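TICKET #2291
ISSUE: user wants both folds in one file
ATTACHMENT 1:
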Amino acid sequence: MSNSESTPLLSNADPEAVYSRFSPARKVLIVSFVSCSSLLPMFASGSFIPSIQQIAADLETTGQVVSYAVGLSMFGTALSSFFFATYSSFYGRRPMFLAGLPLLCAGSVGVATASTVPQLMIFRLVQALGTSGGGAVGAGVISDIYKVTERGTALGVFSSVNILFAAALMGNILAPLIGGWGAKYASWRIVQLGLFVTGLVIFGAVYFLMPETAHPGTRGVDKLLSRDRNGDGEDSERRRIPIVWLNPFGCLWLLRSPNVLFVMMSGGLALLADYAILVPIAYTLGARYNITNEAVLGALFIPKGLGNMIGAPLAGRLSDHILVRRREEHGTFMPEDRLRACAPGGLFLVPLSMLFCGLTVHFVPGPVGLALALVFFFTNGLGVVAMQGPASAYLIDILRSRSAEVMAVTVGTRALLLSLPVSGLVPAVIHFGVLPTYIGVAVLAWIGYGMIWATLKYGGTMREWADVGFEESAMR
């Protein structure tokens, strides 16, 4: 580590040839496959939420009980994030997608055929175990193929736009809309079977068309085979790929770094605002404005999805622009400069949208109140991704060689910490009301941005407190 906070972690001298292995068109294709895989978790959760009341009626239970499945699936996502990210560093990115998608397919069939609440919970967990590769490992793929001044934009696209056979659409728009319409006009079980079919299609596309993106010679298996070459010089890659047992929770040691810890916690508090709007929607907008149709409830997610789709690429481009401008003005930049792009979302859009949405639902009745609430859904969608996108790119900048693991530890730990409060959102709205619940979430969002501000201001010093393998190489 540098002994001076003013010494940039990243410089601009290293070669960038490793990022030229794939043509721009091939990179777009790779991002498309990865984004398709990341689309599935959105569908698994987004299509489930509008159906909660119908599922409760079908299984003869309450909406509060069924809503616990959302928190349980977050728990499963957290566990498998650690697993897939750890093994992706050893075996590569592509095998992790091929291992996770069959689990998602099996879980989707199980959810579709569940006849009891325990069966529903178990198969939701299995389904979640198969979805997480698209997040943590997908971000690692982005870091493999894009240099540092392009990652914010690429991650913004990866986070917000999911491309399938040249048709780009926002996962957070499609999932609840299709889930709600499917539940209303067919069955929530049909929606789950649709997830099974989609998972099979994406598995086939990844298997036949997606290359391995890990940098040559950097995978653990490459190093192991290189050490294990035959004495006669036979290519070690022809030997059988070894099976190794790795500690999937080993990446948790990255949380020793206050930089990683603060970014993880701030993103989690922003994401709580996301779930506070989505999970109890039947008990907030639905109850206040007399909306019981699952298809309409699903359509209410559209403004928030549009906010996600618009906000993520804009925030990514802004963070890249900040780095380029700082380099032009000062000859180099600090990696924390990217966090300046988090201010609009973390300081204003996320907390204020929660406050105003709560006030609107509490005090403004009728169509006017509903319209205003949807406007705040849109601004909240803008803010959450504008907060998270640059922060995720920052972590990849400072830990590029462990990008999948740092994304897993942030996504996984965040999901573990949020699984309990997310499960309590519906009971909180029922027992305390919309306004008090949303005020609490807004305050937590401001606390989260405070952590980003501290990292921006003192990040260099914080890196010296605990060096977990930060990049000392040149900017790429």
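ATTACHMENT 2:
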Amino acid sequence: MIDIATLLIAFSGIFVLGILSYIDLRTFILPNIWVAAFALLGFVFLLIDGFQEISVHESAYGALAGFWTLYTIRAVGNWYYKQDSLGLGDVKLLGAGGIWLGLEGVFFAITVGAFAGLIHGIIYAIYIAYKNKQPINMTRLRIPAGPGFAAGIIIMGAIQYHHIIVQSFQNLF
């Protein structure tokens, strides 16, 4: 029963990240209800695991670190650019990701997520330049950060929890 629940919660978390990414790509908004659902799924996942992989403290530290790191980046970016540079939804998403991943994992997710966002931005800039038959212009490019951070969370989650997921699959069959 725990194995089925573990898989169900893990894949539900990935599904919610997919929904969040889709919404962010379309609207540049990460709805609080979906971010809260992702955070709750993370807590339930760790509860089912008995907090063996990540302690309650590690999860709390990860949530705080993810939130405050992105909040600080947002504050500096907003000050420098004199406009919103990163949405609060992205800040809350990394706070929720920290629940799943803990302190070390959330920093890895932020790094991978930023790199994924960079790749997404470059590809999108090339596409826009090709479509408009103009040179590449990165100065006015707007891309949502949520999908990149979601990719970072998924990649780190796969690295961190692969043995739990594999073992759960093996126990089912």
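RESOLUTION: both attachments delivered.
EXTRA DETAIL ON ATTACHMENT 2: The mean pLDDT is 94.
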